[in-house]
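call fold target=GRF-type domain-containing protein
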Amino acid sequence: MPIDTCSPDLQLRIPISKFQNWFYYHWLSTSSVNLTMSSSSSSSRQEARRHVYGVPTKCWCGQPLDTWVSETKENPGRRFYRCRIALQHKTESHLFKWIEEALLDEIRIVDAKHMDLLNDFQALTIKTQAQLDSQRNWIGSRDEQLKKEMLQMTTSIDEATKKMT
């Protein structure tokens, strides 16, 4: 297999599989773009890169991403996301993200969503319990009121019956 280089210290081979987006919150990966300072584990130099949170779906150039395997001494067998254009235009800045970092981002997204759902469920439980208590109190007060009215009717009927006899 031919070996290409994306940067002087990162060697690549032909993509092992086409990236398939199977995360529910994939839109976060393209909507949360910031400028940050980062460096890959295989590089000691730092360069300004945009950070994509979660599993990326497309490169900044708009191309779909492939899954690649690093063949460097520092990161042998470590998988990452990269577009094919990055191999052809090595001087341009293209998206690069280690797969395990992307998956950890996705886990954090799912955990945050889980906590939101848990908080929503707890709030709904409290609201529903308050509504049930309110309805229970209304039914109890209505029951008392109907018992009083029934007692008054019974008393009135008894008095009317006594007067007739």
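return ok
The longest helix spans residues 99-164. The helical segments are 27-31, 85-88, 99-164.
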